[in-house]
Amino acid sequence: MFEQVRQIFAFAGPALGIWLSGPIMSLIDTSVVGTTSSLQLAALGPGTVMCDGLSYVFMFLSVATSNLIATSLANKDEKEAANHLARLLFVAFGCGMAMLAAIRFSSNFFLSAFVGAKNSGIVPAAATYVNIRAWAWPAVLVTMVAQSASLGMQDSWSPLKVLLVASLVNAFGDILLCTFLGYGIAGAAWATALSQYVAGILMLTSLKAKGYNPLAIVVPSFKDILQMIEIAAPVLMTMLSKICFYTTITYFATSLGPLTLGAHQVMIGIFTLFSVCGEPLAQTAQSFMPELISGKTRNFEQARTLLKTLLYTGAILGFSLASIGVAVPFLVPQLFTNDSAIVAQMHSVAFPFFWSIVLTPPALSLEGTLLAGRDLGFLGLSMTSCFVCGSLLMKIFHKLGLGLNSCWWTLVLFQSARLTASYTRLHSSKSILKECAPAATS
User: Measured between alpha carbons, how far is residue 392 from residues 57, 100, 245 in Å?
Assistant: First the structure.
């Protein structure tokens, strides 16, 4: 177990920077914009849902890439890994172009429907942010696939170096365009879009250095598409359920007025930053478990030990992150807003905010193991059930007029249900970690 802990930290440490990059960029936007305009801070709520939230829908590309390449390399087939990468880069670029067109044509309609007539004043600012960032969609999805390919090769350092450069570009651009040139929310959007293109170019260059030609993209055959769908469809259902739930939280927060929405935007930004610190544990499972479960040197006992190590690490990490995260709105709220009413709302949700972070890393460890073993049908059904039940519960709380606190307590219940369902599955007779149980594929 000590050796596994060392391997986890050697891989997950650099991978943490990859997962932190997106939330850090959004928090930089929130910080720079929020200290200049409370209205534009509120507009970032629906704006980031449409940009960052929708990008998580395409995490099925990331999971498919990591899983296919890790499995191919576990079977010592580098040619197959290169072919998977070529096809997935084509799919990523195509999806990126489609999203660019869709967002440019539908952003105003979506945002108006999302915020409602009562908050229509924030729509122009939110639409400006969304329409500018839409230009980066091809780069976002190509970068996502390239990063996942590198992680599937058990290389987490190259993506980290790339995203450190991109984050610096974003921070410098925000400060220059928003603070010195006064472009406000539009400047924040341009800085983020530029940094995403920088990340894409550098990530493709990194793959080329490994011997993979990122420009040698291949149009997938019908058989290739079926294989992608076999993995991607349940993963897409899982990701959609997560995104729809987080979007539902922001939707109900929006109906509580601009001040409450501003407080929620800051807290959900901090939550995202700290909760994604558990994603490297899920990625560790996806990168190392295939070799133990289905590779030529499979070892189910070692796989179970790895899961136990990931769970212990996740529990310790969850409490540590939650303790730091909950201190932010009390010690340095001025990083995000100078409005005392918004700060008071932030303080009111501190307790459920704490527990929502605690539960996330261990839940992600379990879900990463299910993904690695391709027990995707169960994971998709489980996440969909959590989303439906959580949304109904939130609607009931909203009808009762329980305010922003009810949104965050519902999030705690959502995270608890995710963790319980995955833990029960992995310790059942149908577990992918049982030698007698065949690996699930759908």
Answer: 21, 32, 10
Hey, what amino acid is at 6? R
Q: What is the DSSP secondary-structure string of 236-276?
A: HHHHHHHHHHHHHHHHHHHTT-HHHHHHHHHHHHHHHHHHG
- Report the distance separating Cα 431 and Cα 425, nearest Å: 6
Residue 198: Cβ-neighbour burial (10 angstroms; 0-12, 13-18, 19+): buried
CA distance 93 to 58: 12
Q: Where are the alpha helices (DSSP H) in 35-174?
A: 38-48, 54-57, 59-74, 78-115, 123-133, 137-152, 157-174
d(Cα 7, Cα 154) in Å, to the nearest integer?
Answer: 11
Q: How far apart are CA 287 and CA 155, in angstroms?
A: 10
Rounded CA-CA distance 115/354 in Å is 27
In which element (H, E) is residue 231 found?
A: helix 222-254
Using a pLDDT cut of 70, give the percent of the chain over it: 90
Got the DSSP string for 191-228? HHHHHHHHHHHHHHHHHHHTT--TT---PPPHHHHHHH
For residues 49 and 130, give the distance between their C-alpha atoms in angstroms, rounded to a whole number.
Answer: 9
Q: What tokens were used for 381?
A: 């059904």
Around Cβ 236, how many Cβ atoms within 10 Å?
Answer: 20
Cβ neighbours for 21, distance < 8 A, ≥ 6 positions apart: 163, 166, 167, 199
Burial class (CB in 10 A: 0-12, 13-18, 19+), 151: buried
Contact, 34 vs 266, CB < 8 A? yes
Q: For the range 330-335, what are the long-range contacts, defined as Cβ-Cβ under 8 Å and sequence gap of 24 or more?
A: 333/266, 334/35, 335/31, 335/35
d(CA 114, CA 241): 18
> Residue 343 carries which DSSP code?
H
The tokens for 184 are 């406000």
pLDDT over 80 (residue 24): no
> In the predicted model, what is the mean pLDDT of the chain?
83
| CA–CA dist 288, 310 (Å, integer) | 12
pLDDT per residue as tens digits for the range 325-346: 999 889 888 877 778 888 888 8
The residue among 356, 335, 343 whose CA lies nearest residue 408 is 356
pLDDT of residue 441: 41
Distances (CA, A) of 39 to 20, 112, 276, 337: 26, 15, 27, 11
